[in-house]
Sequence to fold (247 residues):
Amino acid sequence: MSKLYIFFSFFILTLVSFSQTNLNTTGLAGNPSKAISLFSGLKVNDYGHNRSENNSNVEGSPYLFKNWNNKSKIWYDDKVFNLDSINYDLENERFDIKLNKDSIYIISPDDRNIKKVEVDNVLYKSVFKPYYNKTIHRNSFYEVLTENDTYSLLSNYKLKIKGGSIDPLTKTYITPKEYFSEKDYFILKHKEESEMVPIKLKKSEILKLIDVPYVDEIKDFIKKQRLKYDQISDVSRILNYYYSIKS
Fold:
């Protein structure tokens, strides 16, 4: 592995400067120098490195998307790169670019050059940005659900493990443990020292975000539009309307 790092480090010095680059990762195994010359500071690791050994018997995948055939754009420093083989590692909270069956590039939210990552996995398009996470005292990637000059509505994925059922006699698993993911939601108010506030998708929590003089009008808007407090798309509409009348 050390030889691989030395080889890659040599090509990091040949950083290419242009505004947008198409990077077909399916061909990177045969030409890793091309990829390295385009990215400065990305780490390369064995595929599956840092995976928890305690979770080796868990079924499913710790990645967000079912496959790696996801088109994406990465805003890195002042450049934009187009990629076609990327996934989000829920366990390590990072993006991975798969080079081949053995190696991946790691895109860490702690890399100051990473501005945002846009992923198009056919079903829907997602935009992720790095923000400071007070819980773990470092940056995390947050999915941007709504964004304007006043606020951003964000979500943060968490990897969970569903416990399997065990036969009480044999003490063996009848059904296996499985990976699944959950989302936590946050609102980031840009004009209030960029404070990130966690929110729950329920009526009392959403109405806490509304200044008292506007609560009745917002309730009326929700009723007329038949919106639900537990639907994030509806919450986005509620907040957009609130900030439109507040301003």
About this structure: The longest strand covers residues 151-162. The two ends are 56 Å apart (CA to CA).
